[in-house]
Design goal:
By secondary structure, the protein is an alpha+beta fold. Helices cover 18% and strands 29% of the residues. The strands form two sheets. A six-stranded antiparallel sheet has the order 1-8-3-6-7-2. It has a two-stranded antiparallel sheet with strand order 4-5. It binds riboflavin and magnesium ion.
C-alpha cells in the first residue's frame, strides 16, 4: 500500500480528543537504537484499542513517578534497563510537547502483539522509564505500512512528525493543550 494523503481538519474531528494517562513499559529497544526515533511504549487502553490501527498525533507530558522505587528491568531484547521513573528529567522537560503515536502491529517488524508507542517531539537529556505519560490524541495521520527498507520507514516517520507539527499549530489544536 502506498501512503495515503493526510487531511487535517481545522477543528478536531470525532472521536477526538481522546485522553489518557499511562505508565511507560519497556519495548524492544529498537526505537532509539535502530531507528534513532525513541518511543515510549504504553499499554493499550480500551480507548486506544477502539481506534483503527495507524499513526496519530497529539500533545503529551511526562510526569515523574517519585514514589516508585528505582529498579532494574529486563527489556524484550534481553538488555537490562534502569527504571529511573523520570526523576532525572530537568524542569523544562516536564512541559507539554507534541507527539506522534503509533498503534498496531508494526508490520515492518512483524510484532505478535498490538502495541501503542509515543514518540515525543523533543530531545530529552535522559530516558524516563517508569515515569507516567499524560496525553491527548487529536487526529489520525495514516495507516501502518510495511516497508522494504528501514530508511523508508524512518523517512515516513519524519513526514509524520512534520504533519503533526503543522496540524498542532492550528488554533483549535493548540487550545487542546489546556486539557492536559
Ligand atoms: N512501524 C511499522 O511497521 N510501520 C509503520 O508504518 C510505522 N509507523 C510509525 C510511525 C510513527 C510516528 C512511529 C513513532 C512509529 C512507527 N512504526 C511503524 C513503529 C516502529 O516500527 C517502532 O516504533 C519501532 O520498531 C520501535 O518499537
Ligand atoms: Mg519504544
Amino acid at each position: 500500500m502506498t501512503r495515503p494523503e493526510t487531511h487535517v481538519p481545522d477543528t478536531l474531528p470525532a472521536p477526538f480528543p481522546i485522553h489518557g494517562t499511562s505508565n511507560i513499559i519497556s519495548g524492544f529497544g529498537r526505537g532509539s537504537s535502530e531507528l534513532g526515533i525513541p518511543t515510549a511504549n504504553i499499554p493499550i487502553s480500551i480507548a486506544l484499542h477502539s481506534l483503527p490501527t495507524g499513526i496519530y498525533y497529539g500533545w503529551c507530558k511526562v510526569i515523574p513517578n517519585d514514589k516508585a522505587d528505582i529498579s532494574e528491568h529486563t527489556r524484550d531484547d534481553g538488555q537490562p534497563i534502569m527504571f529511573n521513573n523520570g526523576t532525572n528529567l530537568e524542569k523544562e522537560e516536564l512541559g507539554i510537547f507534541p507527539m506522534v503515536m503509533s498503534i498496531g502491529w508494526n508490520p515492518f517488524y512483524h510484532n505478535k502483539e498490538k502495541a501503542a508507542e509515543v514518540h515525543i517531539i523533543h530531545k530529552f537529556g535522559d530516558n524516563f522509564y517508569g515515569a507516567l505519560i499524560k496525553y491527548n490524541v487529536l487526529g489520525y495521520i495514516r495507516p501502518e505500512l510495511n516497508y522494504t527498507t528501514k530508511e523508508a520507514l524512518i523517512d515516513d516517520i519524519n513526514l509524520d512528525i512534520k504533519i503533526a507539527l503543522e496540524a498542532l499549530s492550528k488554533e483549535s489544536y493548540i487550545k487542546a493543550q489546556d486539557t492536559l
